[in-house]
Amino acid sequence: MFKKIKNVNWLCIILLLLVINTACKKTIKGETQIYPEPDPIGTYALGADVSWLTEMEAAGKKFYNAAGAQEDLLKILKDKGINTIRLRVWVNPTAGYCNTADVLAKAKRAKAMNMRLLIDFHYSDSWADPGQQNKPAAWATQDFAALKTSVYNHTVEVLTVLKTNKIVPEWVQVGNETNNGMLWNDGKASTNMKNFADLVLSGYNGVKAVNSSSKVVVHISNGYDNSLFRWIFDGLKNNGAKWDVIGMSMYPTATDWSAKNTQCLTNMTDMVSRYGSEVMICELGMPVSEAVACKAFIKDLIAKNKSLPNNKGLGVFYWEPQSYNSWSGYKLGAFDDTGKPTVAMDAFLP
Questions:
Q1: CA-to-CA dists, residue 273 to 49, 236, 278, angstroms
Q2: pLDDT per residue over 195-235, tens digit each?
Q3: Of 1, 115, 133, 282, which sits most exposed with the smallest number of CB within 10 A?
Q4: DSSP 3-state of 51
Q5: Active site residues
Q6: What is d(CA 168, CA 324) in angstroms, rounded to the nearest whole number?
Q7: What GO MF annotations does this protein's record show (predicted)?
Q8: CATH 3.20.20.80: which residues of the chain?
Q9: Which fold has domain 39-348?
Q10: What is the DSSP code (8-state) at residue 179?
């Protein structure tokens, strides 16, 4: 009698364990697996550069969700699908914004929201882009050897401050829209490609010295211009520079975005096959008045970037989407005049 009851008890226990195990392995899709599904968002960067954030807040700007309720900007963006923040770094800006302390403050907020991070070194006291790559005032009289050291030291110093605060960016840009090099005239690519390559290598080595896991991005505008990209990256490769990711900017109009995106896909595909590089759209934007077209543009560009072979497409970033009422004269944001996101931001939603 005892033996029979014992066998029945063991049978019940085994059946109960099987039921519990099966239930635990069921996902909301009805599939079975041993471990929880990985977060699909974590594999692709849906980003926004919000470097103006602290300056806008200091000026009294507020941000509102679609329902009209005031919220922290990063919460609004996260609810729109944004999972990554991009922050520019200036060496010694006049007003302080985008210096190391300001970048740290914003990076802490991004980390608190569980967002990923792209750090964008301009190696300037102000804007660096295709039309201007001015040396920081403190570096203005340095010879080229000293410039390379300054690039390395500045990169290390900023990333070390972040690391001390337990913040490790996944990506770091060495230069911003360096279509013709950086730190002119010493590092102007059309004049001395070798110097530009050496500066990129200094930045690369600085990044890796602090965080070997951070991927280094070299960023060029006009992502549809294949000849420009081949000239820059052939030059960098032939002169010993190193990078992990090729970054692009895309600022089309409502009438030409489809053609530009097609050209961009051709260029992205070439960058993968020619250099084996991963590709990221570090900046994009369109006039706020063209929000519907902008949404279509972004969704299409995301799809094209994701279509690259071997998952070489890493993500896309809207540049300062929260700039509204033509903040600082900028009219390519994705928030309306009341401080709410336009339909363009819906492009980042699943």
A1: 28, 16, 10
A2: 999 999 999 999 999 999 999 999 999 999 999 999 999 99
A3: 1
A4: coil
A5: 177, 283
A6: 30
A7: arabinogalactan endo-1,4-beta-galactosidase activity; glucosidase activity
A8: 39-348
A9: TIM Barrel (3.20.20)
A10: B
